Amino acid sequence: MDFINTGILGCSEAYFEKALAEPVFFVDLNLDQVIACIQSERSDYDIKRYFNRLPEDVTVAKERVKMLRALENKELFSAFLKFSDQMLEARNYAVKYERAGFELQRQRFLLDCGAAYINGIETLFLAVKEFFYNKEQENISELLSGLFSALAVYTKEQKYQTLCALTKELSAEFAKLRVQVEIARDRVKITQEVSQENYSDTLKRLFPAQKGREEFLENPFQAAKEPGEFEKLVLAVFCKNNPELFAKLKQYEKNFSKQVNLQETAILPWQARDAHEYRNGFAQAFLEEWILTLERQAQVYLAFRMFAERAAATGYPLVYPEFLNWQDADVSYAKNRMEVADGYDLALLLKSVYSKQKVVCNDAYYRAKEAFFVVTGPNQGGKTTYARSMGQAVYFSLMGLAAPCRRISLPFFYGILTHFSVEESLETGRGKLKEELVRLEPMMHTEEKRKFVVINELFTTAATYDGYIMGKRVMEHFMSQGCLGIYVTHIQELADEKNIGSEENGIVSLSACVDQKNASVRTFQIIRKPAEGIGYAYGLVEKYHLTYPELKERLKELNK
Predict the structure, then answer these.
(1) What share of the chain in percent tops pLDDT 70?
(2) Please, are residues 346 and 401 in contact by the beta-carbon 8 Å criterion?
(3) Burial 256-269 (b: 16+ CB within 10 A, else e)
(4) Which residues lie below 8 Å from residue 118, measured CB to CB, with a gap of 6+?
(5) In what order do the strands lie in the sheet with 506-514?
(6) Which long-range contacts (C-beta less than 8 Å, at least 24 apart) are formed by 392-395?
(7) How far apart are CA 454 and CA 444, in angstroms?
(8) Which residues, including other chains, have CB under 8 Å from residue 151's CB and lie 6 or more apart?
(9) Residue 127 pLDDT more than 50?
(10) Cα 404 from Cα 347, distance rounded (Å)
(11) Which tens digits make up the pLDDT trace of 386-403?
């Protein structure tokens, strides 16, 4: 992989720019809720767009899994966090530099920007280097290996070496500068000769810390605003007494800044700045774009690792996927074409943290010659949740992230298609069936091959026979394209395995279970069994005492 162009996610920024809007299946599978929780782990960054597009190659997904495994190393994970914090600091200084009006302040912002940038790179490079040499090479992600090589080359470049040397030299010299201000009535004396006891020590001596109270002293002059007249007076003393040092600072700006055309400068969507704010026509010239891309993309791994740790505390597993070759997942292969063990709805789990409700796990496995699950059963029996959980497991697997289940093996699907029941559109005036057909039409294109399909309650407003015919044709179309999927329906005729599919691809009937002793109680377990063809409504009738004998008794009482 060409790391400079692809970044640490294995895909270029241009690849993600083509999918700034979230896919339709996000809302259907409640992935928008899950991604929002992951995003909140790194709220300083907007990383949602990186979740909007799946990798096109299984190699990328596998390398992301290796990268996440590497970040289980606490030292490496901590180094990436520190790198991010220092890069965020560097970018903030860069924005301040572009906006500062006072020359000396502007020059110092540039120096601080360079210092934070160098610290971030050195922190990350040292940790990656140590990790790289302490692990077996075949177990290291090509993404991490590419990062190590890119940093090794970059840190040896002359321009970086010069930046590094001058930044450290100037930062050390400025750190030695001290100022003493003596105020006596109407006279102010400013000198660089500091007394033995500094101001902070004097405060501590005069106001000793009380028991149980934490000491905290803050420099009141560390403000981001333009310096006041008194501060400029202090700086004038510094410039007068240290002409060579400030000449170096001025030269530093000449070496590592550039003039920009304010009208032509593009403000990128990920840059946290206001294009309408005042800018002074100068910009730093050393922040490498591939380093900034690395910083942004790395947040996906960091946010997901932090999210996964919180999710693991609930006791529900998140597991890395095992990918099968399509040849291995073919109908002639002896193993399952796809298998998910103890899959659960991750969005439901996030809600259950507050409601304290138990989330039910279910299995899914497609054997040879099986392509579609047809899920039937009572209302509120967990059918839609089951379909969502399997869709989520596939999505996170294809993304190269940990999936919400105990085990998952699957072929690398070329995408995810979903179709969930919609309401009638008041804007278009179309009925519910028309709305469903309009949304279904682009999904039926012939190029939609080898994708994972989730269909929920389709054609509910059509007559049962019409819904059966249309549903049958929809499933047979997707099976002919090599797709695997789930079809949730109340049309039990669609679950007849003999009538749908072909010798190469067929359907499997699944059913939502109820308690054997009380049909009104849902177990939310989805198992392989034929559609039972019985009315589960009677269980609800019994629960609310609406049986014929009970209604008859009530009417007798009313007539008395």
Answers:
(1) 85
(2) no
(3) bbeeeeeeeeeeee
(4) 163, 164, 167, 168
(5) 416-420, 452-456, 484-488, 370-376, 506-514, 522-528
(6) 392/29, 392/30, 392/31, 392/34, 392/343, 392/345, 392/346, 392/347, 393/340, 393/343, 394/452, 395/25, 395/29, 395/31, 395/54
(7) 13
(8) 121, 124, 125, 128
(9) yes
(10) 10
(11) 999 999 999 999 999 999
Average pLDDT of every residue of the chain: 85
Tokens for 269, please give them. Answer: 């969507």
- Whether the pLDDT of residue 318 is over 90: the answer is yes
Query: What residues are paired with 375 via a beta bridge?
Result: 488, 510
> Amino acid letter at 109?
F
Task: Give the mean pLDDT of 532-555.
Answer: 70
**301: CB partners within 8 A, 6+ apart:** 8, 64, 67, 68, 71, 80
Provide Rg for the chain, Cα atoms: 32
Within 13 Å and on the Cβ side, how many CA atoms surround 65?
20
Cα(63)–Cα(69) distance, integer angstroms: 10
Say which CATH architecture domain 314-532 belongs to: 3-Layer(aba) Sandwich (3.40)
> Which band of pLDDT confidence, cut at 50, 70 and 90, is reported for residue 270?
very low
Cα atoms in the Cβ-side hemisphere of radius 13 Å centred on 207: 8
What pLDDT does 269 receive?
44
Q: What are the two backbone dihedrals, phi and then psi, of residue 364, each rounded to the nearest 5 degrees?
A: -150, 130
- Report d(CA 81, CA 83) in Å as an integer: 5
For the residues 481-497, what does the mean pLDDT come to? 90
334 has pLDDT over 60: no
Which amino acid does the sequence have at 508?
V
* 541 sits in which H/E element: helix 537-543
Amino acid at residue number 83:
F
Highest mean pLDDT among 53-67, 204-218, 251-265, 411-425: 53-67
Could you write out the DSSP letters of every residue in 111-164? HHHHHHHHHHHHHHHHHHHHHHHHS-GGGS-HHHHHHHHHHHHHTTSHHHHHHH
Give the HSE-up count for residue 42: Cα atoms under 13 Å, Cβ half-sphere.
24
Note the Cα 227 to chain centre separation in Å. Answer: 40
